[in-house]
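ok so I'm stuck.
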Amino acid sequence: MDINGKKVLVTGAAGFIASHLVEELVEKGAEVTAFIRYNSKGDLGNLAKIKKEAFNKIKICRGDLKNIDFVKEIMKNQEIVFHLAAQISIPHSYNDPREFLETNVLGTFNILQAARELGTGKVIITSTSEVYGTAIYSPIDENHPLQAQSPYSASKIAAEKIAESFYKSFGVPVVIVRPFNTYGPRQSTRAVIPTIAYQALFSDKIRLGDLETKRDFNFVKDTVRGFIKVAEAENSIGEVINIGSGKTYSIREVVRMVGEILGKNTEELVEFDRTKIRPEKSEVRLLLCDNTKAKNLIGWAPQYSLEQGLREVLEYVKQNKTEHDIMGEWK
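replied:
not stuck anymore, here's the structure
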């Protein structure tokens, strides 16, 4: 199935990954409706940063995913739904787990119920590698046990299971995608790679928590290609699919690589920040993707190395320093 000409809904379109997805979908000829959460300021989030040519071709809808009537209205006549809207901050999930439950679980339920009633052609549910918790074995394939090590990951596991039940009980054409740690331009400095880049460029210190945790970092353009491959593949319905690079790096290694790119000793700038430490039993020590299924089932493989991706992030941060200053994300 070719995405060209298809009517497509992207939820959470103001977010980091979703804004890149919207841009790529327009480039490929899809007719895109971008759902964003209503706010009194009319803020477009990352949608305001996409190419003007793409922005002019999308339809923007504002509302609340927890309102089932609104969800049904925006999903009418949509052939494919990419459901990316979610509360995603792990630290914030410790402070307000109820908000994560309501947004991530009820919001997903409403998407699925609307798809069931409207006969939507395909629904791609966005999960996360965080559902695996600390690796019991590595690399992590889709059969790895699920471990709720934070309220955020618990909410995503619950959303996955509701999606699975709608596929098995009602035949709703669902695919669950589990992206590993995605990074790239436009990402908030609440995420580790942008905050390393920002501090390495503009601060005399790089304040971080645990430097030895290891993650499978996936450049956003690779992640977006994975979503589109999932949508186009006829054999993906009912499947759970990892999207990850198949390589893992510690935070310390990322700091070192940023330094090598910038030609400076970034490791000597690192300062321990206790506020960035997760509760002991909640910290995920290692994430390494087994992407064999994605390669075999949908023909996807990563194209960007970590170094290539970091160069793009550093260039973006250089050109958009005030973006993070204004957002008040860095102190």
